[in-house]
Amino acid sequence: MKYFTKISITLVLFLFVFAARTLAMPSAPKATVMDDTFDFSSIHSIAIAPPNYVPRKNSKVTPALLEKMFFQEGEYSRLAKKVKFVSYSEVAADIKNQTGVDLSTMDARKARECYRQNVGKYADAYLVVTIANDSRVVAFYDLYSAKTGAYLYSCEIIGGDFRDDNVSVLSKFTQKFYGNLQEFLSQASQKNKK
Q: Is 122:45 a contact under the CB 8 Å cutoff?
């Protein structure tokens, strides 16, 4: 009887831990094409815009760190074989050289507007990532046309809980997004060839 009780307790604990880990895994990306009239095969470069992110208390994650990670994950992805990634710092430096406007000294809202108005000179599309980090971490990846500002593509990835608010987990979310986008762009390219 003692043996049966120990096995039962061990089995229940195992199932509890397994269920907790399974429920804490990020969900599959939910992608939506916002503008199906847009020629996605015309995207040859993507600029990374500053993320919409408010760090939690005592968080080591900063918007600048996330911006760098989004750019690096893009460069490391399979998508980089077909698409050039342009970092926010590159665009900001070029804007400063050409117009004399320093985005780093501007109010965040005005800097974003100036970025949107000028990014079309440096890329075909730009990516804005929004991270909501309340009880669950949810990452929204929104792709816009850099030329027209049209909202093109959106992808949502839902994490386990607030402990997922770290660079390692957000990096995995971003890898999923880039893989999803790469697959979508390949399909769009094949449709245009037909």
A: yes
Quick one: the chain helix, strand, coil %, rounded to 5? 55, 20, 25
Q: Please give the distance of CA 177 from its chain centroid, rounded to a whole number.
A: 6
CA distance 70 to 74: 6
Given a contact cutoff of 8 angstroms between Cβ atoms, the answer to whether 51 and 131 are in contact is: yes
CA atoms within 13 A on the CB side of 40: 21
Straight-line distance from the first to the last Cα atom of the chain, in angstroms, rounded to the nearest whole number: 69
Evaluate if pTM is beyond 0.85: no
Residue closest to 50 by CA, chosen among 134, 120, 137, 109: 109
Beta bridge partners of 138: 132, 158
- What confidence tens digit (pLDDT) does each residue in 88-140 have? 999 999 999 998 899 889 998 899 999 999 999 999 999 999 998 777 788 99
